[in-house]
Amino acid sequence: MVQEIYEKIRDAGVVGAGGAGFPTHVKADCEAEYVLVNGAECEPLLRVDQQMMAFYGKDLLEGLRALMRCVGAKEGVIFLKKHYEEAVHTLSELTRNLKDIRLHTVDSYYPAGDEQQIIFEVTGRVVPTGGLPKDVGCVVSNVSTVINIAHAMHGEPVVNKTVTVGGAVVSPCTLTVPIGMDLSELVLYAGGVTEPCDYILGGPCMGQLVTSLAGLSVTKTTGGLIAIPKGHPLHEKKSTEINYKVMQSVCCQCSMCTQMCPRNALGLNVQPHKAMRAVANGANLLGDYNGIFSCCDCGVCTYVACNFGLKPNQIMKAVKGSLSAQGIRPVKEQRYEADRFALQKRLPTDRLIARLGVSQYDVPAPLLMAELKTKHVHIPLKMHAGAPSKPVVSEGDHVFRGQLIADIPEKALGAKIHSSMDGIVTKVTDTFIEISEKENES
Ligand code: SF4
Ligand code: SF4
């Protein structure tokens, strides 16, 4: 039975829909006491998970049950914010008489959707640096991932993704679209932009700024597309250019970035002010660097903590990247004791929104229930952690929606990919497959 669930998840190409796209069949291949559903959706402006929970609560429970069976969990917990009233109502009704599945609701704070925070809130445990949630008896999965698991139990592969289109667009909305659909089509559906913009792929804090949507399409992990006006303060903050001279001369080592760091509050040795000091001293970290691997790039240090407008999260990222490039991997540490005031240090989301300067974009983005259609998809072969998938179709092949088009390379970590529309394969490369509508259908 467990093997069957595992195989169905793998064959459907399910990957973590809310983060780096870790293949779910690999994540599910463990034993854990708890399965925690991440429904906190902590990034401001995104409206996917809260609406998915409200409308697809039964699917969520079915997927959760399957995952619990797979890992032998004694308890399933759906973690969400109190103010997601419709989702809380739907799921409270559905779980009312269940003994092994419950809700855990929290106030709106950032980053409530960080898996470390969820594990700590529900179990009081902290994943040590270099460790994984399973080391503390937990598996954490995003709402869309768990719903995809439910579909996988019925033999339905992952072929679409639900995405919030927000920011400076005419009609912010949440759309379910075929994987591979051009991102520019989503902006058009939202009525276009209200002024000249660039775009953030993902949420305002952790998303990546791009200056053009050309060649970019929806992947299994796309959760948000935010139009951000050129010249907006957040636009500047998200620019990837690091001005080391400014960082060196301005940082006064006040350590506010470390004091406000949510991972530091959990007792992990994440100290961005030391990384800033390292920059000033020629990139010598002056001590223990292992904790840097526990930085989750939430951006609190940059967007809220630093009163000089410096970007310690970019320095953390750069140092982490440099360590990885040198082949240095995190050393698995002992468990930590969280700061006893960790919960009091939580950053209210409305304060974050004000600091980001995006209050005017903090509006509803209603979910369109019908899936959008398109005439052409551009499906990347790497939408997940691990090796790119290997095409099993050729140019000119006729494919149908749900058909396998790329497989996991032998003995590699990876995920299967399926066609998201009926059509003809028009291009196959090492990095993507393009499919277009058949001529007589246009
Ligand atoms: S980066 Fe900013 S918050 Fe952090 S130590 Fe320097 S001045 Fe203080
Ligand atoms: S981005 Fe900054 S605040 Fe967030 S975990 Fe890393 S160091 Fe801490």
Biggest β-sheet: count, sense, barrel?
5 strands, mixed
CATH superfamily of the largest domain: NADH-ubiquinone oxidoreductase 51kDa subunit
The proportion of residues in beta strands is: 15-25%
Mean pLDDT across all amino acids: 93
Second rung of CATH, namely the architecture of the largest domain: 3-Layer(aba) Sandwich
CATH domain fold name of the largest domain: Rossmann fold
Briefly summarize what is shown.
With 442 residues, this protein is an alpha+beta fold.
Structure, explained:
By secondary structure, the protein is α+β, with helices and mostly antiparallel strands. The protein has 4 domains: 2-153, NADH-ubiquinone oxidoreductase 51kDa subunit (Rossmann fold), CATH 3.40.50; 160-232, Ubiquitin-like (UB roll); 244-352, no CATH class; 376-441, Beta Barrel (OB fold (Dihydrolipoamide Acetyltransferase, E2P)). The chain is built from 16 helices and 18 strands. The protein has helices at 2-11, 24-27, 48-55, 57-71, 85-95, 115-123, 143-153, 183-189, 233-237, 244-250, 256-260, 262-265, 272-280, 300-305, 312-325, 349-356, and strands at residues 34-39, 75-81, 101-106, 109-110, 138-142, 160-167, 173-178, 197-201, 208-210, 224-229, 347-348, 376-380, 390-391, 398-399, 404-407, 417-418, 423-428, 432-436. The strands form 5 sheets. The protein has a 5-stranded mixed sheet with strand order 7-6-10-8-9, with helices on one face. A hairpin with a 3-residue loop joins strand 17 (423-428) and strand 18 (432-436). The radius of gyration is 22 Å and the shape is globular. It starts with a helix and ends in a 6-residue tail after the last strand. Residues 251-257, 273, 276, 305-306, 308, 310, 312 line the site of one iron/sulfur cluster.
